[in-house]
Design goal:
Blueprint (H helix, E strand, L loop, with lengths): L14 H6 L1 H5 L1 H8 L7 H13 L4 H17 L5 H21 L12 E6 L6 H13 L5 E4 L6 H14 L3 E2 L7 H14 L4 E4 L8 H18 L6 E7 L3 H14 L4 E5 L9 H8 L4 E5 L7 E3 L2 H9 L7
Parallel strand pairs: 1-4, 1-5, 2-3, 2-4, 5-6, 6-7
Antiparallel strand pairs: 7-8
Bound molecules: guanosine-5'-diphosphate and magnesium ion.
Guanosine-5'-diphosphate binds next to α7.
Amino acid sequence: MVFRKLFRRTAEPDVQLEKGLEKTRRGVFNEITKLFDRHELDDELYEDLEMLLIQADIGWDVSQQLVAELKERASAERITNPADAREILRLEMTQLLELATRNRKVKILQRGVPWVVLVVGVNGTGKTTGIAKLVEYHKGFGRSVMLAAGDTFRAAAIDQIKIWGERLDVPVIAHQPNADPGAVVFDAMQAAHNRNMDVLIIDTAGRLHTKFNLMAELNKIKKIIQKTVPNAPQEVVLVIDATTGQNGLVQAAEFTKSADVTDIFISKLDGTARGGIAFSVAKELGTPITYIGTGEKSSDMAEFRPDTYVDSLFFGEGEGF
Ligand SMILES: Nc1nc2c(ncn2[C@@H]2O[C@H](COP(=O)(O)OP(=O)(O)O)[C@@H](O)[C@H]2O)c(=O)[nH]1
Ligand SMILES: [Mg+2]
């Protein structure tokens, strides 16, 4: 009980995030926490830790790196108490995630000039739901928001975004199914510009193309956007589904190579007990993680912060004070 006091949160708790990460916290991270209840900080503990980190979808390389660093620091600082080692691990994990926020650009939105957000990613990752979340987020700042139904390949996709538009009371620019996405985007840009919208969010189709096609299509859409607002899109958000683990990361890498992704949105963190994907994203992609999705409602989103994220993996409600 004495060292229990060491386990302090780094940041203010985020209730939304804690709820979203509950499965992960109760799953692998509960196992990780329990490891450090052991009496000895020995090789067996380090080996078990590495295995659990890999199970948490933190990725092979990153897991090895974390354990190696922990070992080194524990040895250099003559730490023998597992409870102290756990604190070091927590700080190391936070530092690793800070890599993912270091390159984040400051966003300065101008009232009445459309801040254009292009949302990309593989089909089913949560783009359209993520867009609903972004609408609620921007509306929370009192901004006017418009949507563009740029995924014209499935009629259902157009209906889905229209329904969100009605629910959230924002206009949606849409064409018929199978229309040219470029034409939708052009119309939406004109409408957003003419109506002095603060934010325009553009949905895209998430077909897995060959790399060349993906690049060509996204470039074409960007050129169309720039006909109306030359410095747009100010944000290109890539949605990554947390439940697809390391596989999702490989697909995401294709997008970061093809599109100038500015921000990453990790969706469905509530749906997995292995919520460690953020660590491999931070290490492998180098693109800032900005948003995280923790459910199917438009309010189920949090801004990504390394300290609250790591706290939420280790502490449940009312713990860690
Ligand atoms: N549990 C959970 N489900 C989500 C989340 N985001 C999206 N979904 C669900 O995932 C499915 C695909 O989402 P959708 O937004 O249509 O993906 P898209 O094809 O990329 O546009 C839908 O059933 C969503 O309700 C999330 O953060 N948590
Ligand atoms: Mg969609």
